[in-house]
Amino acid sequence: MSVSPSKDGFIAVFFSFYKKKAKPLIHFFSMLAMTFLGLLLLTFVIGRLMPIDPVIAVIGDKAPEELYQKTYKEMGLDEPIVMQFIYYLGDVLQGDLGTSVRTANLVTDDILNYFPATLELATLATVFGILLGVPIGVLAAVKQNKWQDYLVRFFGLIGHSAPIFWLAMLGIVVFYQHLDWVAAPEGRLSVMYEYTLPKVTNMVLVDTIIAGNWDAFKDAFAHIILPASLLSYYSIAYLSRMTRSFMLDQLKQEYIITARVKGVSEMTIIWRHALGNAWVPLITVIALTYATLLEGSVLTEIVFSWPGLGRYITDALLAADMNAVLGGTIVVGLVFILLNLTSDLLYKVFDPRAK
User: Fold this and answer.
1) Are 18 and 67 in contact (CB under 8 A)?
2) Using one digit for the tens of pLDDT, what is the confidence trace for 96-149?
3) Predicted local confidence at residue 327, as pLDDT
4) What residues are paired with 106 via a beta bridge?
5) Which one of 35-49, 118-132, 170-184 scores highest in mean pLDDT?
6) Radius of gyration, alpha carbons of the chain
7) For domain 114-354, is the CATH number 3.90.1640.10?
8) Given this model, what pLDDT does residue 11 score?
C-alpha cells in the first residue's frame, strides 16, 4: 500500500519547481510580451503622427467626399484612439498587418517573400564577420601596440568610415566589371534559374541545395558573395574592435597571470581561457551586429537590386504605403527583441555564473 505525500510535501515540490523552472520561463515570456506590446504601441503612434492621410493613400486624392467618409469609417478612424489601438493590437496578434497599397498584397505575404532575402544576406555577412573579425581582434590584442595591432585598428576605422554604397560601387567596378569574379548586380539569381527553382524557404542558397540544382547554387553564390562580403566588412571591423577590447581586459586578469606561472601554453591561455571568457560580452555584440545587418542593409540592397526587407520598406515609405512601413518596422523590432533575449539566454551557456 503506497502512502501519498503530505500536503506540505506537495507545496514544497510545487515551490521548488516554480523557483527553478517555471519562474524563469514566466519571467522570460512576460518580458517578451511587454516589450512587444511597447513596440506595437510605438508603431501605432508613429502611424498616427506621420503626415500622411491613410484614407487618401488607399483611395487617392481625387476620390469624392462620400467615398472618403465611407472609407474613413471602414478603417475605424472614427473610433476613439484607444479603441483604434485595441483593434490594431488584435489584428497584429492575428497576423494581419493590413494590405499594401503599392503591391496590393497582404503585408504579411510581402514580408514572407522579402524577408528571407535579407535574412540570407545578413546571416552570411554575420558568419563572415565572426570567422574573420574575432580572430583578427584576438591577434590585435595579443600584438598590442605592434604593427599588427595598428593594421587591424586602421582596417576597422576604414570599415566604420567608408560609406557602404561607395564600397558597393567600387566592388562592382573591380570584381564584376574588371575581374569578372562575381555575377551582375541584378537580384539573387539569373533569369534562367529564377522561375524554375522551387520556393521552399525563399532563401535561394538553401532552396538550390534542397532541389539539388548545383548550377543554380553556383549562380546564387556568385550573386550573393559580393554584397555579403561588403556587409561583412562592417561586422568584421566592429567585431574585431570589440574582441580586441574584451581580450585586453581578460589578459590583464589575475587568472591569466596564474596560468602563465603554472606553465600553461600561451595558445591555451589565449584561445581557451581569455577568449572563453571574452565570449560572454561578445554574445551581445554579435546579436546586435546581426540585428543591425538585418535592418540596415537597405543601401546594399538598392545598389545590388536585392529584393530584401530594407528595400521593401524604403519603397513603401516613398509610396506613402504606411501598412507596409509599419509592418516592416514591427518585424525589424521583433528581430531585435528576440536576438536580445536569445543573447541573454546564451549567457547561461557561456557563463555558468549567470545561472
Assistant:
1) no
2) 888 888 888 888 999 999 999 999 999 999 999 999 999 999 999 999 889 988
3) 87
4) 99
5) 118-132
6) 26
7) no
8) 57
C-alpha cell of 71?
472609407
Alpha-carbon span 280 to 10, nearest angstrom: 38
CA angle at residue 30 from 88 to 280, to 5 degrees?
Answer: 120
Joined grid coordinates for residue 66: 462620400
Domain boundaries, the chain: 33-96, 114-354
Q: Tell me: pLDDT of 182 over 90.
A: no
Q: In the 3-class helix/strand/coil scheme, how is the chain assigned residue by residue?
A: CCCCCCHHHHHHHHHHHHHHHHHHHHHHHHHHHHHHHHHHHHHHHHHHHCCCCHHHHHHCCCCCHHHHHHHHHHCCCCCCHHHHHHHHHHHHHCCCCCECCCCCCEHHHHHHHHHHHHHHHHHHHHHHHHHHHHHHHHHHHHCCCCHHHHHHHHHHHHHHHCCHHHHHHHHHHHHHHHCCCCCCCCCCCCHHHHCCCCCCCCCHHHHHHHHCCHHHHHHHHHHHHHHHHHHHHHHHHHHHHHHHHHHHHHHCCHHHHHHHHCCCCHHHHHHHHHHHHHHHHHHHHHHHHHHHHHHCCHHHHHHCCCCCHHHHHHHHHHCCCHHHHHHHHHHHHHHHHHHHHHHHHHHHHHCHHHC
Phi-psi category of residue 187: left, alpha or beta, with phi > 0 → left and psi -120 to 50 → alpha: left
Residue range 27-34: mean pLDDT, rounded? 78
Q: Are 331 and 115 contacting, i.e. CB atoms less than 8 angstroms apart?
A: yes
Half-sphere exposure of 59 (CA within 13 A, CB side): 16
Q: Has residue 52 got a pLDDT over 70?
A: yes
State the pLDDT at residue 14.
47
Q: Could you tell me which of 237, 252, 249 has the C-alpha nearest to residue 153?
A: 237
Q: pLDDT tens digits, residue range 84-105?
A: 888 888 888 888 888 888 888 8
Q: What is the mean pLDDT of residues 73-81?
A: 78
Residues 154, 257: contact at Cβ < 8 Å? no
If pLDDT is split at 50, 70 and 90, which confidence band does 355 have?
Answer: low
| CB distance 275 to 138 below 8 Å | yes
